[in-house]
């Protein structure tokens, strides 16, 4: 006998990329102009959107984005990470769930990102079909422990429609 569908499900995601000169820094679909380094990645390297995409999938035990967009497939080179998020959201909605709120933490030593918080929250909210008041965006430094990496973590609450 199958279990009764839960009214709520929590999803959690993480991502990390090495930083290198000559790569754009894109976070939540927003390009951080003037950044000296950006993530080394097969796609556009948007760690915030990868993390949120994995959180969507994990909430419904649907695996992770590497299964849907393998980094060994040249088809996904330079992929716009908003397309990854849209596909993950579609998989969630097909199963009768939708995001209720999201909480994202980005760990990056430089540059400072506080001035971009509202724009990033707004962009993510638009992609997830939420109001920006339902998208928490926190920034942390690694206190010099991981100066050559960007890391992101996110939770998303999914509600059954
Ligand atoms: N890339 C970053 C990292 C952090 N911030 C802001 O700095 C404050 C202190 O961060 P700690 O990691 O030292 O606790 C905090 O208010 C962050 O929002 C930032 O803007 N950009
Ligand atoms: C997005 C994918 C695919 O382009 O590659 P990357 O941009 O390297 O990013 P990662 O966070 O390692 O996630 C999964 C990959 O399959």
Automatic annotation (TrEMBL):
Give the EC number(s) listed in the UniProt record: 4.6.1.12
Give the pathway annotation: Isoprenoid biosynthesis; isopentenyl diphosphate biosynthesis via DXP pathway; isopentenyl diphosphate from 1-deoxy-D-xylulose 5-phosphate: step 4/6
**Its domain of life?**
Bacteria
**Cofactor(s) required, per the database record:** a divalent metal cation
Q: Which SUPFAM superfamilies match?
A: IpsF-like
Is the keyword Metal-binding in the record?
yes
Q: How is the cofactor bound?
A: Binds 1 divalent metal cation per subunit.
One GO molecular-function annotation for this sequence?
metal ion binding
Print the keywords alphabetically. Answer: Isoprene biosynthesis, Lyase, Metal-binding
What general EC class does the enzyme of this chain belong to?
lyase
Q: What does this protein do?
A: Involved in the biosynthesis of isopentenyl diphosphate (IPP) and dimethylallyl diphosphate (DMAPP), two major building blocks of isoprenoid compounds. Catalyzes the conversion of 4-diphosphocytidyl-2-C-methyl-D-erythritol 2-phosphate (CDP-ME2P) to 2-C-methyl-D-erythritol 2,4-cyclodiphosphate (ME-CPP) with a corresponding release of cytidine 5-monophosphate (CMP).
Subunit comment:
Homotrimer.
Report the sequence similarity comment from the record: Belongs to the IspF family.
This one is known as 2-C-methyl-D-erythritol 2,4-cyclodiphosphate synthase
